[in-house]
TrEMBL record:
It comes from Weissella diestrammenae. This is Putative gluconeogenesis factor. NCBIfam families: CofD_related (TIGR01826). Required for morphogenesis under gluconeogenic growth conditions. HAMAP family: Gluconeogen_factor (MF_00973). One of its GO terms (biological process) is regulation of cell shape.
Amino acid sequence: MSEAIKAQPISDKIVVIGGGTGQSVILGGLRKYDTDLTAIITVADDGGSSGTLRDYLKMVPPGDIRNVMATLSDAPQDFLDLFQYRFTDEASFLANHTIGNLMIAAMAEQYKDIFEAVQYLSKIMQVKGHIYPVVNEPLTLHARFTDGTCLSGEAEITQAHKKITNIWVENAAGEAPEATAEVVNSILAADMVVLGPGSLYTSILPNISVPNIAAALRATTAKIVYISNIMTQKGETDDFSDGDHLRVINQQIGREVVDAMIMNSGVVPEGYIDWQRWNEISHQVKSDPEEVKKQGATPVLADLVELRDDGAFHNATKVAELLQMIASDNTIKNLKD
């Protein structure tokens, strides 16, 4: 960890962009502070319960929205347990669906607008902060691989286990999507924007591939922080260092915009990971702080490993503390200042 960083009150407005479990973990750490939180969530997921509801109802996939909503909710725990309840395989057509996914689907149909539906349900759920789907329509993720082939769909791309050269997103009409004014303005008004952690190509890049999101990240005066993954993803980021992750993000945005990068210095014990259960991960991300510096970002290193469930995860409390410190560190300058 940088010795120059000293703990001060956290930024007033923090926007966390991503998807998957990583985003919920970080938001869970940040919600303990007195700050204005906004979660911008990918809508390119097409697997599991989310994918089924997306296909049948032609709606934004609700899974990541549901998890973030549960994380930021002040509702009673009994209600949250019900909200997160997943029907078993024996439940026929309800098998593997969660109550929360079905609630979001019902409200999206009622309101005919996923953004408004999520805002209303957030009030019911007593959400501390703001939850914004990155766009108001489901997106399809496309990837081109190093062997020249292309695939569409997050689940297909992940299961291919092939090295990606570039990705892009399209709406149902095959056009580039556009984020709403609320989403763009939250980035422009933020004190800090946090990217990750999460699958680089299927959780983070689908958000910043939306053209006016990338433009907002180039224009905002907020400090932009990227939380590097602890583990690489099989077939996608094999052999990637921290610097490689950062390079891909900056290329997608179209400029070196990341001001600080949180990097794990802890070691995952050999033999700890259950490779069958966590079959998408490969090995620890290589640490390369010098390459991070070359790309204009300040490397912030700490042991962030939390070992549980036979896997390696970010310690939410430690990451939130680092974000607090970065926010108040005047030696970390916004690249656009």
